[in-house]
């Protein structure tokens, strides 16, 4: 019996050593942006524009206008974590708006940096409790905003714009929120209209001030929400109407689309709302 135990022990030891020797080393997954760039280069190589920014290479999906006359340029900023071919309406707009006379540029969004404030976290003390900031910290939101604006600026500097062209920015989700903050600071750029779709900021403090921020945006603003957006967006949208009255922003319009942002019918209505708003300018 003792001999069998010794043999069994030796067999288990050999198997455990083999399993340790055969274990694969940990390999970091490729960034989402790099995978997107590879896919876009494979299927849309003739429509891609590569931009060099301080944070690396960024890809833009370009589609030229296809109507008899050109109306302008539309820059599309998908929400955080979404690519230029976002199924939440922007992929549809990138093609549909070309039939309405616009060149479209669908910009790639930055990689999310969840460790942006890794070295800035203050330890909680008995007299100072740590306050929950929301899904994103201030540092993470600032990092995303900085990278997005860097990509936008690189694209904007390359645009060839005439006096007759309308320059329109369509942004969604978190991108709409941070770009609103940028426009509220009155930058020296020429934008004829700003379309915000389901604008939000995943930080409690910053999102609280978003209604006031949107009322300070200089270009005419079309604020679009969906009936199935989260309750935070709907509550925030009610406050926006109050703030635009307070700050006398008369070129503000808010529209609610009923249904999911991925539904083809809502994509068509989104296009109609956007086209109608731009024709009134």
Fourth CATH level, the homologous superfamily of the domain at 61-112 and 133-230 and 240-281? Alpha/Beta hydrolase fold, catalytic domain
Total beta strand runs: 8
Beta-strand content bin: 15-25%
Secondary-structure element order, as H and E?
Answer: HHEEEHEHEHEHHEHEH
InterPro entries: AB_hydrolase_fold, DUF3530
Pfam families: DUF3530
Keywords: Signal
Signal peptide: 1-21
Describe this structure in words.
This is DUF3530 family protein. With 281 residues, this protein is of the alpha/beta class. The protein has a domain at 61-112 and 133-230 and 240-281: 3-Layer(aba) Sandwich (Rossmann fold), CATH 3.40.50.1820. The protein contains 9 helices and 8 strands. An 8-stranded mixed sheet has the order 1-2-4-3-5-6-7-8, sandwiched between helices. The longest helix has 21 residues, at 2-22. It starts with a helix and ends with a helix. The mean pLDDT is 89.
Characteristic terms for this protein:
281 residues; Rossmann fold; 42% helix; globular; 9 helices; alpha/beta
Please provide a brief summary of the model.
Keywords: Signal. The protein has 281 residues and is α/β, with parallel strands linked by helices.
């Amino acid at each position: 019996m003792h001999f069998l135990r010794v043999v069994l022990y030796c067999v288990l030891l050999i198997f455990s050593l083999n399993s340790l020797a055969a274990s694969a080393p940990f390999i970091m997954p490729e960034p989402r942006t790099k995978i997107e760039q590879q896919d876009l280069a494979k299927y849309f190589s003739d429509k891609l524009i590569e931009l060099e920014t301080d944070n690396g290479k960024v890809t833009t999906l370009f589609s030229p206008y296809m109507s008899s006359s050109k109306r302008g340029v539309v820059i599309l900023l998908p929400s955080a974590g979404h690519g230029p071919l976002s199924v939440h309406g922007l992929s549809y707009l990138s093609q549909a708006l070309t039939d309405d006379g616009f060149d479209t540029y669908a910009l790639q969004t930055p990689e999310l940096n969840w460790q942006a404030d890794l070295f800035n976290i203050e330890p909680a003390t008995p007299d100072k409790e740590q306050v929950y900031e929301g899904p994103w910290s201030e540092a993470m939101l600032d990092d995303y905003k900085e990278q997005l604006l860097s990509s936008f600026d690189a694209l904007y500097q390359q645009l060839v714009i005439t006096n007759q062209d309308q320059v329109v920015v369509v942004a969604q989700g978190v991108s709409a929120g941070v770009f609103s903050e940028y426009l509220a600071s009155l930058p020296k750029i020429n934008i004829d209209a700003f379309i915000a779709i389901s604008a939000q900021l995943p930080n409690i403090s910053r999102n609280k001030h978003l209604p006031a921020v949107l009322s300070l945006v200089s270009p005419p603003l079309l604020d679009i929400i969906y009936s199935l957006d989260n309750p935070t967006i709907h509550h925030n949208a009610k406050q926006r109407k109050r703030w635009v009255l307070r700050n006398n922003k008369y070129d503000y319009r808010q529209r609610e689309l009923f249904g999911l942002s991925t539904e083809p019918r809502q994509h068509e209505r989104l296009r109609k709302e956007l086209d109608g708003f731009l024709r009134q300018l």
